[in-house]
Design a protein that fits this description.
30 helices, flat, alpha+beta, nine-stranded mixed β-sheet, 13-stranded mixed β-sheet
C-alpha cells in the first residue's frame, strides 16, 4: 500500500501573509498606486492627443474644415431640359448621398452643417437704382440655391422661397437680417440682375427675411457672405472706392434659373466633417484620406460621381499638418517625464523587494541550511508576491480605465503588466541571488571598504556609453524624433551614471571627516560618521532613486517654468504692459480725459500715452543695411514711457536721451530730434541726421540709442521720438501697468469716454496661448510626474531607513545602557542620516543642473508654450533653462525628510523599552 503525501499543516502563502499583514497591505498599496500611474500615463496621453485633434478641427474656421466639392453644370450641348434636370434638388441630393459613401475612412460627414446646391462663381451686378450705391458703384450679389434653408434659418418676416421659373428667368429668394438692413431690402423687393442671352434681366423677388440658426456653424460660416454683407474695396487705380457685396438665397428649385444669368453657375456639395469619432491614432489615415481626395484615388471616384471636371478643395490638410507638428514637438518632451518617473518607480519597487529580502535573510538562510532548494524557495516567494501584486495591479488597471475613458486599452495593459511582473519577480530574484550558495557569517559590508566587482564596473561603463550617446544625439538633432527612446531617457541615464560615480566617491569624504572627529570630546560625531561609513553596500539603491527623482523633478520643473515664462514674455510683448488701450480703427486719437480716467481705475499704477504712425518711408542714410520699407514712427512722453519700458524690460533707456528740443508744433524741416531706433532702422539711417516726412511733421532725426524692442509695438522695426517735438501731436494708444489691475473697471472707464476703443489685458492674452488640450495635457503630465517623483523619493527615503531601523534601534538600546541620553540619541541618528541626505541633495541638484545644461540646446519649448500663436514671433525661441526653485526645493525637502524621519525613529525608540533589542541571541 503506497503512502499518501503528507498535507502541509499550514499553507506557506497564507501563513506568511498572516505573519506580516501590515507589510502585505503596504506592498499591495504600492503596487496598486504604481500600476494605476503606469496604466494612466498612456491613457492620459491618448486622451489629450485625441482631444487636441478634435479641438483643432472643431474650433477651426469652417471655411478650412469643409470638403468643398464642385462641378460645372451640365454641358451646353445637351438639351435644356436635361441640363435643368441635372441641377434640380432631387438629383443634387442623390449625388450627395453617393459622395458621402465615397469618403474614405475615417472621414465622416456632419449632416447638420453640410449643404448642397447651385451657386454663381462670379458675383452679378444689381441693376436697380434704388439699391445703395456708395461712390456710385452698384452692389454685387452671389446667387445661391442652398438645401436645408428651412432647418438652418428662422423666418423673421415673410416666408421662405419656394418658386422658380427658369423659362421666365424669375425666382423667389430670402435674405438675412443683416443683408436686408445693409442693402435696404424688404419683403416684396425685386432685385434685377443681368441675363446672359437676353436684354430682359433676371428678376429675384425677396419673399422672406431670415435669421441664421447656429450662425458660426459650417452652413453659414463656410461662406460668410451668405450671412453677412461686405462693404468691400473696389480694386482699381482711380482712388479708394467701396461697394456692397451680398448674397440672395434662392428657392431650392432656383438652380436652373442661374443658367440664364451671367454669374457662371456651378454645382456644389459642401460637406462638413464630423470630428467626434476621431482619435489620435486616426491622424495618419486622416491625412491619407485627405490626400486621396485632393489628388488621388478618392478624387477619381468623386469625378466618377459628379463629372469629369469635379474638384475637391479643403483646408483640412493644413489643420492636420499643424496638429501633427504640435504632437511631434510635445511627444519627446513628455517622454522625458515618462522615462524619469518610470525609472524612479522601478527603483522603488526594487528597493521594496530588497527590504523584504533583507528582513527575511535569516529565515531563508535557515531554509537553505535545512535542505530547501533554490527553485523551491523561489516558487514559494513567487506565490507570496503574486497573490499580492497581481490583484493590486489588476485593480490599478481597472481604476485607470475608469478614470480615463476613451483611450486604448493595450498600452495601459502592457504598462500595468510590466509593473506586476517587476513587483512579482523582484523579491524572488533578490532572494535567489543572495542565497544561491551557502551563507557563512562574515564581517560587515562596510561601504567604505567595499570594492566594486568587475561585473559592476562593466555595467557602469555600459550605462556611461548609453548616456553619452543619448546626450550627444539630443544635442545634435534636438527632440524632433519622438520615437528615439534613448534620447528621451538621456536625463535618467545621466542621473544613474552620476549616482554610481557618487557612490564610488562617497567613502572618501567620510574617511577624511572621521579622522578629526576622533579627537572630539563627545562620541556622537565620531559614531555618526562611523555609522554612515559602515552603511550596507546595498544602500546605494536609495541614492539612485533619489538622484533620478531629483533630476526628473528639476527637468520637469524647469520645463514648466520655461513654458510659463515664455507665455508671460509673449503676452507682455504683445500688449506692451499690463493693459493696452487702442482705437478700433487705425490712428484714432484718444478722447480727451481718457488718460486721467484710466489713472483713476482700480489697480492702475502708471499710465503713458503715445502716438503711432505707420508706414513712414526712410531715407537712404549713411548706413549700409538693405532697404527697409515703411516703419512705424512713435511719439512718446519720455519719463512715463521710460518707466513702462524699465518695468517690462523691453528696451529701457534714459529719459534724458529724448530730451525735448522745444520745437513742438512748429513747421521746421531743419530741426533735429533725438531718436531711439531698432537695429534695422539704425543701420538704415546711419549716424548723420536724416529727414523724416510724416503726417506728424517733417523734421530730421539723429539716432542716440539702439534698442531691440519697445513696449509700444511688438514688431521688429521702430523709430521713437519725443512726442512733444512733433508738429501734429495726437496720441493714439495708451499703456497702463499695475500688479492688481482691474480689467472690468478699466474697460468701464474707457467705455465711458468712447465706445470706439478696446482694452487688451496681458492676463487675457496669456490665457489665450493655452488654446489646445495637447498643451494643457502635456503640462498636466509633467505636474503629475513631478508629484509622483516626489512621492517615490519620500518612499525611497523611508524604505532606506526601514531597512536599517532594527540595527539602529539595537544600537540606541546598547548605547543607552552606557549612558547615552535621548537628546544625544536623536543627534546620533540625525547626523548618521545627514551624509547620505546631503549627498543625495547636493548630487541631485548638480546632476539636475548639469542635465538641463547638457540637454538644453536640443530642447525648444516654443510649440509647447505658445503653439502656433503669433506671440512666438516676438521671442528669440523658448530654450530650456534651469529653474532655481525646481533645483533647490526638492533637494532641501530630501534633507528635511531624512532628518525628520531619523528624529521620529529616535523619539519612538525612546518611548519603547529596550528589552527586545538587548535579548541575547538575536541577529545583529
Amino acid at each position: 500500500m503506497s503512502a499518501e503525501p503528507v498535507r502541509a499543516v499550514a499553507p506557506w502563502v497564507r501563513t506568511r501573509l498572516r505573519t506580516a499583514p501590515g507589510a502585505a497591505w503596504a506592498f499591495s498599496l504600492l503596487v496598486l498606486v504604481t500600476a494605476f500611474l503606469a496604466a494612466a500615463l498612456p491613457r492620459a496621453v491618448d486622451v489629450y492627443e485625441t482631444e487636441g485633434l478634435r479641438h483643432d478641427l472643431a474650433t477651426a474656421p469652417p471655411r478650412l474644415t469643409v470638403l468643398d466639392i464642385t462641378s460645372p453644370p451640365p454641358p451646353p450641348d445637351l438639351a435644356r431640359e436635361s441640363r435643368e434636370a441635372g441641377m434640380r434638388p432631387d438629383q443634387l441630393a442623390k449625388d450627395r448621398a453617393e459622395l458621402e459613401k465615397l469618403l474614405p475612412a475615417p472621414l465622416r460627414v456632419d449632416p447638420e452643417e453640410s449643404v448642397h446646391g447651385v451657386r454663381t462663381v462670379q458675383r452679378v451686378i444689381g441693376l436697380d437704382p434704388w439699391l445703395p450705391q456708395p461712390y456710385k458703384l452698384p452692389p454685387e450679389f452671389t446667387l445661391t440655391a442652398p438645401s436645408g434653408l428651412a432647418e438652418h434659418a428662422t423666418v423673421r418676416e415673410g416666408r421662405l422661397p419656394t418658386k422658380a421659373d427658369p423659362a421666365e428667368g424669375t425666382s423667389e429668394a430670402a435674405v438675412t437680417v443683416e443683408t436686408a438692413k445693409s442693402l435696404r431690402l424688404k419683403v416684396g423687393s425685386v432685385v434685377h440682375v443681368p441675363a446672359r442671352f437676353s436684354s430682359t434681366p433676371l428678376a429675384v423677388t425677396v419673399t422672406g427675411i431670415v435669421e441664421p440658426v447656429r450662425s458660426q456653424g459650417g452652413y453659414w460660416s463656410a461662406e460668410p457672405l451668405l450671412r453677412t454683407p461686405v462693404y468691400a474695396l473696389k480694386p482699381g487705380g482711380d482712388g479708394t472706392r467701396f461697394y456692397w457685396q451680398a448674397a440672395l438665397l434662392l428657392a431650392p428649385a432656383g438652380g436652373p434659373v442661374l443658367l440664364s444669368g451671367t454669374g457662371d453657375p456651378e454645382l456644389y456639395w459642401r460637406l462638413a466633417p464630423a470630428s467626434g469619432h476621431l482619435t489620435a491614432q486616426d491622424e495618419p489615415r486622416l491625412s491619407a484620406a485627405i490626400a486621396s481626395l485632393s489628388g488621388g484615388p478618392g478624387l477619381v471616384k468623386v469625378r466618377e460621381a459628379v463629372g469629369r471636371s469635379g474638384a475637391v478643395a479643403t483646408g483640412l490638410d493644413e489643420l492636420v499638418g499643424a496638429y501633427r507638428s504640435l504632437r511631434a514637438a510635445v511627444a519627446p518632451v513628455v517622454a522625458v517625464a515618462t522615462f524619469g518617473i518610470g525609472a524612479v518607480a522601478a527603483v522603488v519597487l526594487a528597493m521594496t523587494g530588497g527590504l523584504f529580502a533583507g528582513r527575511r535573510a535569516a529565515e531563508l538562510a535557515l531554509l537553505r541550511s535545512r535542505g530547501g532548494s533554490v527553485a523551491g524557495i523561489g516558487v514559494r516567494l513567487l506565490g507570496e508576491t503574486g497573490v499580492l501584486a497581481l490583484p493590486a495591479a489588476g485593480l490599478g488597471l481597472l481604476l485607470a480605465t475608469l478614470a480615463l475613458p476613451g483611450a486604448r486599452f493595450l498600452p495601459a495593459l502592457l504598462a500595468a503588466g510590466a509593473v506586476a511582473l517587476l513587483a512579482v519577480a523582484v523579491l524572488p530574484l533578490r532572494a535567489l541571488f543572495l542565497h544561491r550558495g551557502p551563507l557563512t557569517h562574515g564581517g560587515r559590508e562596510d561601504l567604505a571598504d567595499a570594492r566594486p566587482s568587475k561585473g559592476r564596473t562593466v555595467a557602469e561603463l555600459t550605462l556611461l556609453v548609453l548616456a553619452v550617446g543619448a546626450v550627444v544625439a539630443l544635442r545634435r538633432r534636438g527632440t524632433a524624433d519622438a520615437g528615439d527612446y534613448l534620447v528621451s531617457a538621456a536625463p535618467v541615464l545621466v542621473a544613474l551614471i552620476a549616482a554610481l560615480v557618487l557612490v564610488r566617491l562617497y567613502p572618501l569624504p567620510l574617511r577624511w571627516a572621521a579622522r578629526p572627529a576622533r579627537r572630539l570630546r563627545g562620541a556622537v560625531g565620531y559614531l555618526s560618521l562611523a555609522r554612515a561609513g559602515r552603511s550596507s553596500a546595498t544602500g546605494t539603491l536609495p541614492l539612485l532613486a533619489l538622484l533620478v527623482a531629483l533630476t526628473t523633478a528639476a527637468f520637469g520643473g524647469s520645463v514648466l517654468a520655461g513654458v510659463a515664462d515664455a507665455r508671460d514674455r509673449a503676452a507682455l510683448r504683445e500688449t506692451g504692459a499690463d493693459a493696452r488701450v487702442v482705437g478700433n480703427a487705425e490712428a484714432m486719437p484718444l478722447p480727451a480725459g481718457l488718460a486721467r480716467a484710466v489713472r483713476g481705475a482700480a489697480g492702475v499704477r502708471d499710465v503713458t500715452t503715445f502716438q503711432v504712425e505707420y508706414g513712414i518711408p526712410l531715407p537712404v542714410g549713411t548706413g549700409r543695411a538693405a532697404e527697409t520699407r515703411g516703419v512705424p514712427l512713435i511719439g512718446v512722453e519720455p519719463e512715463s514711457y521710460e518707466r513702462i519700458a524699465r518695468r517690462t524690460g523691453f528696451g529701457p533707456f534714459a529719459a534724458s536721451l529724448l530730451k525735448s528740443t522745444g520745437t513742438g508744433g512748429r513747421i521746421d524741416p531743419e530741426r533735429v530730434l533725438p531718436a531711439v531706433a531698432s537695429p534695422g532702422v539704425a543701420a538704415r539711417l546711419g549716424t548723420e541726421p536724416q529727414e523724416i516726412a510724416a503726417a506728424a511733421g517733417t523734421f530730421k532725426v539723429r539716432i542716440v540709442a539702439v534698442r531691440t524692442a519697445t513696449p509700444a509695438l511688438s514688431g521688429a522695426d521702430f523709430l521713437l521720438v519725443n512726442g512733444a517735438d512733433l508738429t501734429n501731436r495726437a496720441d493714439t494708444a495708451l499703456l497702463a501697468s499695475g500688479p492688481s489691475l482691474d480689467g472690468g473697471a478699466l474697460r468701464k472707464a474707457v467705455a465711458a469716454k468712447s465706445p470706439d476703443f478696446s482694452v487688451a489685458l496681458r492676463t487675457e492674452r496669456r490665457a489665450a496661448y493655452v488654446d489646445s488640450p495637447m498643451q494643457s495635457g502635456a503640462e498636466s503630465i509633467y505636474l503629475a510626474a513631478i508629484g509622483a517623483g516626489a512621492g517615490y523619493a519620500v518612499l525611497a527615503v523611508l524604505l532606506s531607513l526601514l531597512q536599517t531601523s532594527p540595527e539602529r534601534a539595537t544600537l540606541l538600546a546598547r548605547l543607552r545602557t552606557m549612558g547615552l541620553t535621548r537628546r544625544q540619541g536623536r543627534r546620533l541618528l540625525g547626523l548618521e542620516a545627514l551624509p547620505q541626505a546631503l549627498l543625495a541633495a547636493v548630487g541631485g541638484t548638480l546632476v539636475g543642473w548639469a542635465t538641463i545644461l547638457l540637454l538644453a540646446p536640443g530642447v525648444d519649448l516654443g510649440r509647447l508654450a505658445l503653439s502656433a500663436t503669433p506671440g512666438l514671433a516676438g521671442l528669440d525661441g523658448v530654450p530650456l533653462r534651469a529653474d532655481p526653485w525646481s533645483l533647490g526645493l526638492p533637494a532641501a525637502g530630501v534633507v528635511v525628510l531624512a532628518g525628520a524621519a531619523a528624529a521620529v525613529q529616535a523619539w519612538w525608540s525612546g518611548r519603547r523599552g529596550s528589552i527586545k533589542e538587548l535579548r541575547a541571541g538575536d541577529a545583529r
